[in-house]
Design a protein that fits this description.
Blueprint (H helix, E strand, L loop, with lengths): L1 H18 L14 E5 L7 E2 L5 E2 L1 H13 L3 E5 L5 H7 L4 E6 L8 E2 L4 E3 L1 E6 L15 E5 L3 H10 L6 E5 L4 H9 L5 E5 L3 H7 L3 E6 L4 E8 L4 H16 L2 H10 L7 H13 L1 H15 L3 H12 L19 H7 L7 H18 L8 H12 L1 H13 L7 H7 L6 H4 L9 H21 L25
Parallel strand pairs: 1-4, 1-5, 9-10
Antiparallel strand pairs: 2-3, 5-13, 6-13, 7-13, 8-11, 8-12
Helix pairs in contact: 10-11, 10-13, 11-18, 13-14, 14-15, 14-18
């Protein structure tokens, strides 16, 4: 009888024992990595075909690990396994674009961002502006997402609202299906609307599905107290010192520049014009190591892929090289497509080499592209102004604000380089970033040759490649 009593007592205690599992030790260099539970997504964790990892939360986690002086160990979850892994507690934090659970089962960090869920639809369809109009509609959402939970919650009060959860691909694949009229409605994170518009220009989001909610890191039911304190201190610091704003700009700062007509035209040019130019861009990457899609984005911004383009200042060719620059690079004929593309690529590398070696990517590339537009002398002058203004001359986030000052007399009158249209350089770089994102989404990378690594700058949401 005592054995039976002990058996049932043990069974009763199992949930309690599970809830009181010892949290992971505090991460320390060489002993305990920072263990992060995440899942693939445009805002959290993305790996491209070259093995490059990106994502807004991934970069934030990397900054936290650097602050702690430890390595990061990622545990990748799927929509089917995320909830079980959250309960397992064998992680220091969960960074997967999550909001605090309603049941209070998880402790959460301070908010990192704020967002809400929206309904995306094709602009050709009648816009829905009231939740009641969802009656009888079928809405697609990614499996296990916050948006799927939102639709299920709405379906409890809206008649015949149907949810279809999609377990394959990512939300941008789902939005592309919307643009191709394969689905009618998609529930998505509002933070992705501008990003998605770069790939699906006929997308519209006119209906908010939820109230604003914070995006946090989940720390488990009983997190390590020291770990929680360090995370809280880290978030407070990156809020106050501008780190959070800089990382957010890296992924979202350029996505509102292009108009719908610009994107539609560019997508058409990818189909009609790019095929005959692609071999030249490939050759330029093999010679210079610069991602051919970045070079193609630069060429499109400069000339709209017109090999015979000529400006009133006699800048010519598909890469719009000046005569002086062409001579310096040994480009004999600026109107020769291959020579111009290779010359432009070599010039980008030359401009990057002129910058201090410790400037990280992708800022190094964006600064070099600004120099491509205004020249290295004006870029150097802008970096001097940045120092005088207590701004960071190595950060594109700060230089976006400084470069337009080159057109103001109170600044350029004191510079040997004189006046420059720095604001145009900012627009050029931001447009190139958007064109590059679109090409990354639509065009595969060039396979690296043995012993040669392609140099691919970090980009706004480096996004999954289509085949």
């Amino acid at each position: 009888m005592r054995r039976i009593h002990s058996f049932f007592l043990l069974i009763a205690l199992l949930p309690v024992l599970a809830c009181n599992r010892t949290p992971l030790p505090f991460p320390t260099p060489g002993k305990q990595d920072l263990v992060v539970l995440t899942r693939p997504g445009p805002l959290s964790y993305l790996s491209d075909e070259a093995g490059n990892i990106s994502g807004l939360e991934h970069d934030l986690v990397s900054a936290l690990a650097a602050d702690l002086g430890v390595r990061v160990q990622h545990q990748l979850a799927t929509p089917e396994t995320l909830q079980a892994q959250l309960q397992d507690e064998q992680y220091h934090l969960a960074a997967a674009w999550l909001s605090p659970p309603d049941d209070g089962s998880q402790q959460a960090s301070l908010p990192l961002f704020e967002t809400h869920d929206v309904l995306a639809q094709n602009e050709a369809s009648l816009p829905l502006t009231e939740l009641s109009q969802l009656a009888g509609k079928t809405v697609h959402a990614m499996a296990g997402s916050r948006q799927a939970a939102t639709i299920r919650r709405l379906a409890a009060t809206i008649p015949e609202l149907r949810l279809v959860e999609v377990g394959q691909g990512d939300v941008l694949d789902l939005v592309e299906a919307l643009g191709e009229h394969k689905v009618n409605y998609v529930a998505m994170d509002a933070r992705l609307e501008d990003v998605a518009n770069q790939y699906v220009p006929n997308l519209r989001a006119t209906l908010a599905l939820s109230e604003p909610a914070p995006i946090v890191w989940l720390l488990g039911p009983a997190p390590n107290p020291e770990m929680k304190a360090r995370i809280e201190a880290f978030i407070e610091r990156i809020r106050s010192d501008g780190t959070l704003d800089r990382l957010e700009e890296r992924y979202f700062g350029h996505v509102r520049r292009l108009k719908q007509a610009d994107i539609v035209k560019f997508l058409g040019q990818i189909e009609s014009t790019l095929p005959r130019l692609r071999p030249h861009f490939h050759a330029a990457e093999r010679l210079t190591g610069i991602d051919w899609r970045l070079l193609a984005a630069l060429a499109y911004q400069e000339s709209h892929w017109d090999p015979f383009a000529t400006s009133y200042t006699n800048v010519r060719g598909i890469m719009m090289l000046t005569e002086e620059t062409a001579d310096r690079l040994g480009v004999e004929n600026r109107l020769d497509t291959r020579d111009s593309i290779i010359g432009g690529a070599r010039y980008v590398n030359l401009l990057k080499d002129m910058l201090p070696a410790d400037i990280p990517e992708p800022d190094r590339t964006w600064l070099a592209l600004a120099g491509y537009n205004i020249g290295p002398g004006h870029l150097s002058a802008a970096r001097t102004i940045a120092r005088q203004q207590k701004a960071d001359p190595d950060a594109w986030y700060d230089m976006k604000r400084i470069l337009p000052l080159l057109a103001k007399p109170q600044y350029y009158s004191r510079l040997k380089s004189g006046r420059a249209r720095g604001g145009e350089a900012v627009i050029l770089v931001e447009n190139i970033r958007s064109y590059y994102d679109i090409l990354v989404r639509n065009e595969p990378p060039l396979p690296a040759l043995p012993g040669k690594l392609a140099e691919i700058p970090g980009s706004a949401p480096g996004l999954k490649l289509k085949r």
